[in-house]
Amino acid sequence: MRQIKTQKGNSPRLGPKRRSTLREMVKCCPDVDQQALRQNEMRKEDQNTDNIIEMRVGTVEQLFHTLDPYPIRDKDLDREVEDYIVGWARELPRNRPFRIIVHFPGDQGQTRLAQELPEAFSRYFAGRAGAIQGDLNELFRVGRRSLAIGVTILIACLFSAHFAAGYLIEAPFRRLVEESFLILGWVANWRPLEIFLYDWWPLARRRDLYTRLSTAIVERKQSIPGSTEFAR
Questions:
Q1: How high does pLDDT run on average in the chain?
Q2: Number of Cβ within a 10 Å radius of residue 126
Q3: Strands, E, within 39-146: which ranges?
Q4: What is this structure's pTM?
């Protein structure tokens, strides 16, 4: 297929047949450009749509751990509430911001405690992200120590295998001892390799998810009494 060469900053020139074909397409289908523009606008709107997570509670206190004595803005979320939010957040697209909508009956959403929900949610998820980052740092610290120990054992096993191969005369036993030292050396490095190759990924993804949730917009809405649908 022949390529059209262009200069930097200029668009490729179309031949006369190509230009005539485009004119015929626009003349025969005047709504082609409008359809393309409409599809482009729909894509932009889809990209700008927030990930909406909705829930309904009776009171503000239902959202937080009942045994936590701290004020609302410093309380821990209830385990079921956290699992619900995180479970939905995992299923939603990663390239959109989150919007958490909490539905309250009556005027429960207008109370002073309800007005502190955005700050409480932000602090809690930011704190969870920081805790997971600490776990990740500790995992890498253990991985570095395990790697240092594993490499030391591997070097010692290589020297031992070489020493055994030089002093053992019988071939079957010499091969067995040599292979045993090599296997022991590589097994000693199994744990650090597992840490640096696989174990840190889930923690990093969970940390990023909580970081995104800490920046979520929290809204309060009044639910319709006796209705199974959320109030819009």
A1: 79
A2: 15
A3: 51-56, 98-105
A4: 0.70
